[in-house]
Specification:
Layout: H1 3-39, H2 45-50, H3 64-71, H4 76-84, E1 88-98, H5 104-107, H6 109-115, E2 126-139, E3 143-146, H7 148-151, E4 156-160, E5 166-168, E6 170-175, E7 180-184, E8 206-211, E9 219-231, H8 232-235, E10 243-247, E11 259-261, E12 267-274, E13 282-286, H9 287-298, E14 306-307, E15 310-315, H10 317-324, E16 338-344, H11 349-353, E17 360-364, E18 367-368, H12 372-380, E19 388-394, E20 397-403, E21 406-407, H13 408-412
Antiparallel strand pairs: 1-2, 1-4, 2-3, 3-7, 4-5, 6-7, 8-9, 8-11, 9-10, 10-13, 11-12, 12-13, 14-21, 15-16, 16-17, 17-18, 17-19, 19-20
């Protein structure tokens, strides 16, 4: 076969293949058109094709997801941390710890005269304890917010910024019950962390914890909001008056005082506590709590905390029945819903008002109450020395009592 015949044969085969492809496409398009019309009435393949972009033959490059990935190399966590990171500080403290050794044997004058003054070793009575925590700047003139337990009783406070600058810190105010403190540093035009609203936080929202855990500066962890209004008694910190934000973002020693952020980089809480022997459970003070008292703390003012002086628990008919089944019980509890008074603190406002162990508080200031934390919240929001009217069931009788809250810290000092 000559070369010319060979070329003609190859050209003929190529023509046949091309004709088959054209016929296949011609048969497929009407089928697609008919199928799409059945699924979506009024659908036109021609109109759909006409709407495709003509400036670029690559359909993939026109999809929003691909464009977003191409132009945004980082996620929302990066943006949030960049917005706040420069305002997060490390706080180093030193305090003098005094130890009183019960050493009558060492200090006995007779033994010292007999054996000599130098026979017994002189044990150190004081030592310097170092601590570390986190905080964040809330005012460009150098107001830093942190936890009370980070700076409480500290002799020296040093504040280090992310850029390496170090300042001597002055503790302006501490409120132990809310575990909040304000430290002042001498700076100008300092970076500031934007404050959000913890009242807008919902379970399932993103949570970003920033701080200096275990001495590792500028550490970021990510999680979600696990629950809200977790009381300090539930957390195992009964000496505080707080409702915490619970998160599964890792909060480690040294994170205390650092900010908990939302996905926009706004501070929604102050990292404060971790629960021993539990992973994935951390707690933060709601930023709204801090915003309510930060200015008073910055001025060195004392934060009032009204109290009435009772220990209490939630009472239901079922719990009351269990209590009443106890042989030789000292009290008989009404089988109702309310707040059971378990103990009345001596010389407290509650004792002065006539409250007794076994009383059931069913209303305060005309509002029905069945939860101890709700009663505590109403008392905490009251005023020192201002009357609170209680409706109490004592046995089968209803009592109306008036109690006048006092300052908690003053009461504890006696």
């Amino acid at each position: 076969m000559s070369s010319i015949e060979q070329q003609l044969r190859e050209l003929r085969q190529a023509s046949i293949y091309g004709l088959v492809m054209v016929l296949s496409v011609a048969a497929t398009i009407p089928a697609i058109q008919a199928f799409a019309t059945q699924l979506v009435p009024g659908y036109s393949l021609r109109d759909a094709l006409m709407q495709l972009p003509t400036s670029n033959f690559s359909l993939l490059s026109q999809t929003p997801i691909i464009e977003q990935i191409k132009h945004n190399k980082h996620n929302f966590v990066v943006a949030a941390v960049k917005r706040v990171g420069a305002a997060v500080v490390r706080i180093n403290t030193e305090r003098t710890i005094t130890i009183d050794f019960p050493a009558p044997f060492f200090d006995d004058p007779f033994l010292r005269r007999f054996f000599g003054e130098d026979i017994f070793p002189r044990l150190p009575r004081e030592y310097r304890q170092q601590g570390q925590g986190s905080g964040f700047i809330i005012d460009s003139d150098g107001i830093v917010l942190t936890n009370a337990h980070v700076v409480s009783r500290a002799d020296t406070v040093m504040v280090t910024l992310k850029d390496g600058r170090t300042f001597q810190g002055e503790v302006r105010g501490i409120d132990e019950l809310s575990d909040l403190a304000v430290v002042k540093i001498q700076g100008r035009n300092l970076p500031v962390a934007p404050l959000g609203n913890s009242s807008e936080v919902q379970v399932g929202d993103w949570a970003i914890a920033v701080g200096n855990p275990l001495g590792l500066d500028n550490t970021v962890t990510l999680g979600i909001i696990s629950t809200l209004k977790r009381s300090s008694s539930q957390v195992g910190i009964p000496d505080k008056r707080l409702d915490f934000i619970q998160t599964d973002a890792a909060i480690n020693p040294g994170n205390s005082g650092g900010p908990l952020l939302n996905e926009r980089g706004e501070v929604i809480g102050i990292n404060t506590a971790i629960r021993a022997k539990a992973e994935g459970i951390g707690f933060a003070i709601p930023i709204d709590t801090a915003k309510a008292i930060k200015d008073q703390l910055a001025r060195g003012e004392k934060i009032p905390h009204p109290y009435i002086g009772i220990r209490m628990l939630n009472l239901t008919p079922e719990i009351a029945k269990e209590i009443n089944r106890i042989p030789n019980a000292a009290i008989t509890v009404p089988e109702i819903r309310g707040v059971l008074v378990v103990q009345v603190i001596p010389n407290s406002p509650a004792m002065v008002a006539g409250l007794r162990r076994g009383d059931v508080i069913v209303a305060i200031e005309g509002r029905s109450v069945t939860k101890a934390d709700k009663l505590q919240d109403i008392v905490a929001k009251s005023s020192i020395g201002r009357e609170l009217r209680l409706k109490v069931q004592r046995g089968e009788q209803i009592q109306q009592l008036s109690v006048y809250p006092e300052e908690l810290q003053e009461a504890q000092s006696f």
